[in-house]
Amino acid sequence: MSQTLVAPAVKVDRKWQLFIDGKFEDGASERVLFNPATGKELCKVSEASVGQVEKAIKAARKAFDEGPWRSTTAAERSAFLFRLADKIDKDAECLAQLETLNGGKPLREAQYDMADAANCYRYYAGLITKPSGQATEVPAPSFSTIVREPIGVCGQIIPWNYPFLMAAWKLAPALAAGNTCVLKPSEYTPLTAVRLAEILKELELPDGVVNIVLGDGRVGEPIAQSNLVDKVAFTGSVKTGKLVAQAALGNLKKVTLELGGKSPMVVFPDFDLDCAVDYALFAIYCNSGQVCSAGSRFLVHESVFDDFVKKMVARARLIRVGPGLDSQTEMGPLVSEGQMKRVLEYIEIGRSEGARLELGGDQPTGARYEKGYYVNPTIFTNVKSNMRIVQEEIFGPVAVIQKFKEEQEAVDLANGTVYGLAGAVFTNDVTRAYRVVKAIRAGITWINGYHNTYNECPWGGYKQSGWGRELGTFGLEAYTEIKQINLNLDPRPVGWFEA
């Protein structure tokens, strides 16, 4: 394998600070970050105290109640978001390298994330100036309109698998609507969030409109609990999502949750098998399987099951695993040592449950992998629906392949977990494709494809995969309150209190 590494153009040996009320400041403590590709120390970052989180929330509250952002016109907010998108494009290579160094993903995946994030800001920059609200006839001498207004202070807690992109998914609609924000990136991948703060500062975003606090769940908890926060948006695990929802009950703040998945990909025998395998590889091994919508369960018709397994094993064996800055790498390391150990533990669980390990289950060997957080592409067959590797989200490069005989059996298997984030159907029969995809209880579905994600389309899940939707018009609506305004056209006394 080639070991031609991209020479990083970014400096990580520097101060990585909190961003509160338009100013950078040191945190109350520091955290050491490690390069997932090497296991070596990457840098140190500040982490906020509870007091600093409260300071950030108060700054956002003041900026919303007293500051200029809420009173700006849609056109002014749109212009700012367009300028932000242009700045991200100019800074894209440095941002992508930061993402790869911090999170481990192949550089080409990080480069795509930067472009997609910029386009997300552009999408909401355009959408906010389009017509919204309603005017309606009512049975009275009155004119009634329905308008959308910003919610207020929005707490936003994002994960480590798509740090910069997830920040865009939350900040873009929130800012477009006129809200102020307190953003908490994952404690594992905060670097691009700090760089984003520097960009916002360069673009002269008013103080307090976006505040960025760093740290683990102890930093996120006061955001979810605070009575000064009007909405909280969280992307992450089901377990933590439930805690966020419970914490939000204190002042009944609005909540958006994008949680886990155990998404099925159903393959019927009439579809080209080689093409289906290509999509299967992309579905599970993109970003090393660290994707909430990853296709981790493959439901294959019994007549092509053996061939599918054989082809998938053969192709997965050829995947080039390595450092994200290696131009030849197709699958990088996992984000942290803890995540690596979690995935390896699940592989042992699969073995102990009696599943057949067709490929992987181990780590690559050699000097370049010695201290990195790598796990080889892994495939299990001979699995039963009650196995933990079938029911639980692993969040790593681990696939399970199940056999089905009849269409209804495939649907039942597809719906047989507590999750309902995504799913796909592969068949040349358009009627069957639509029938089956309608029967799958998931918020994001594909026919003869996988992982297509568009800023224009809603993102979110059924069942325990979350509440609400991000992206599209739905993503903007989630950051607004609905108000009715009634104008009385005949303001004469109504005579209600006449003697």
Lay out the secondary structure.
Elements: E1 18-20, E2 23-25, E3 29-34, E4 41-47, H1 50-65, H2 74-90, H3 92-103, H4 107-127, E5 134-137, E6 142-150, E7 153-157, H5 163-177, E8 180-184, H6 191-202, E9 210-212, H7 217-225, E10 231-235, H8 238-247, E11 254-258, E12 263-267, H9 273-285, E13 295-301, H10 305-316, H11 337-353, E14 356-359, E15 378-381, H12 388-391, E16 398-404, H13 407-414, E17 419-420, E18 422-426, H14 430-439, E19 444-447, E20 462-463, E21 466-467, H15 472-477, E22 480-488
Parallel strand pairs: 7-8, 7-10, 8-9, 10-11, 12-13, 12-18, 13-16, 15-16, 18-19
Antiparallel strand pairs: 1-2, 3-4, 5-6, 6-22, 11-21, 14-15, 17-20
Question: Would you kindly provide a written description of the structure presented here, covering whatever features stand out?
Answer:
It is a single chain. The chain has 499 residues and is of the alpha/beta class. The chain is built from 15 helices and 22 strands. The strands form 6 sheets. The chain has a 7-stranded mixed β-sheet with strand order 14-15-16-13-12-18-19, with helices on both faces. It has a 6-stranded mixed β-sheet with strand order 9-8-7-10-11-21, sandwiched between helices. Strands 5-6-22 form a 3-stranded antiparallel β-sheet, with no helix packed on it. It is globular, with a radius of gyration of 24 Å. It starts with 17 loop residues before the first strand and ends in an 11-residue tail after the last strand. 51% of the residues are buried.
